[in-house]
Amino acid sequence: MKGKSMKLKTNHSFWKKIANNFDLYLFVLPGMIITTIFHYIPLYGVQIAFRNFSARKGIWGSAWVGMEHFQRFFDSASFEMVLWNTFALSLYSLIAGFPIPILLALFLNSFRHKRYRKVIQTVTYAPNFISTVVMCGMLMLFLSPRIGIANHIIGLFGVEPINFMGEQSMWRHIYVWSGVWQTAGWNSVIYFAALSGVSPEYHEAAVVDGASKLQRMWYVDLPFLIPVITILLILNCGSILSIGFEKAYLLQNPLNLNVSEIISTYVYKVGMIDNDISFSSAIGLFNSVINAILLISVNWISRKISENSLW
Amino acid sequence: MRTLIMKNQHKEGLRQKSKKERAKRSNSDKIFDGVIFVILTIVLLIVAYPLYFIIISSFSDPAAVAGGNVTWRPIGFTLDGYEAVFKEENVMRGFLNSIIYTTVGVLINLGVTIPTSYALSREDFFGKKAVTIFYLITMFISGGLMPTYLVVQSLGMINTMWALVVPGALSVYNMIVARTFFKTNLPLELLESAKLDGCGNTKFFIHIALPLSGPIIAILVLFYGIGHWNSYFSGLLYIIDQEKFPLQLVLRNILINNALRQTQSILTEEALKEAERLRQVTELMKYSLIIVSSIPVMILYPFIQKHFVKGVMLGSVKG
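ok -> structure tokens follow
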């Protein structure tokens, strides 16, 4: 009855619909204004990538230069290095970091001891709430060449102290595995939540059929996770070039710059330190476009193969 | 959400029922359980040890820490590190700044997010879809660093608190979480009956919706609060004066850039020893600093655990 009356109401004319809930528009107004100013106006301001921005002349007064800044970026010596570093770091993070939360959730889900499970969850979630600065500070302390515990430990095995942060070959491993340490537990929450939706009937049926626990994990639990896994994988692939600024910037030093300079840190330095604003915007735009292309193509592929997709 | 919980309870019930079944657990299942137990315990130790190590080191004699003698318990208990932290003016000022930024930031976040998500949770809100898409777009494309910076600059927000708290006033993810909460917890019937009593939208929102939204407000305060407390990049971008630095920037300078007063050149052996001691305390201070800067988060953590998990689950419900 009530549902019906609501239906009727929504059949009124356009203005009536708006007048009906006039105040709800005031509710969404502040958010829309802020989003317009800080998200849509910058989107519009992206045109400075095609101009020679000068603060004196403003966005409108600055001269058009077309693709010049993009060309300059493609021709520059840094282009290949920065692009490769970003790609390598991102892909490595994805390959190392993506499956672990899934495994963790599967293991936790089939773990009998409830209280111990709680303990494990509480502890593994915790690093996620440590700030990036503190995380990097911890790495510096542990890996310090003279007094870090890492060097004390390898010293026990007779290995000479290593300047971890200065060692180019180590940098990506440090970056990626510290990230796994920090986020794996927390990232498992979403899979764990999905697993709690698995109907127990499936497990009962599997037990009747004589399935072992391992088989049940593989044939009952895992298939249940596939939609979640696909969606998260698409999202992760779509942001493969937008690996974060903070951690890379904090862990950089002159010795590891050849592997640690990525697009986001490069954009920051070119724009904020060298003050080459248009050039920096061009690189940022290049990055966004590649990400959008990746997102769309991965989504397309996934829809073809598995019928799971973002849209 | 509710069905999910019910299923969970059902599952727990089954776990108990399965005692009989436990008796006929096969050998392979026992091995399986054992292997999982071992793996999870190793994971637990790997995650916990670095955190534990920071804690015991912060209480230990600096020489013992530097010498690698501290492994599983504090050695030569001392509070020198903490004393050094509280003597460091920058740290205390950064701490205070961050408290202010976080409080103001969260208030703005709530003021913008809650009304928006309430309005968008209403089925009868005409234009709901258009507004939602308006927000979703910003999750996938952005203008990038420099165009955003120029907007903040042109508004005169550089080197003010506003640059840290206004641009991110509404996080789309949190908005969706809150919207899902309102959708599931404020049934249309409630609004209908209130309307029959002559209650308008605003009145309904203030007197009925808000008092019922304790859990979602808690989740938002935690999500946004931790975000502000841990945020570093916006401070780096927009804050110029040292006195206005948020805590994370101060931490960066000390933990990563080692920007602490260095000792002068020393001649006597006595002074040399003293200088070495001072250098060690400075190192020790870093451990204590990590603990002190994380105190607010540690206090909140018990709440975080419970509510955040709920929030993540709400967020994962598609809608």
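The CA atoms of residues 237 and 243 of chain A lie 11 Å apart.
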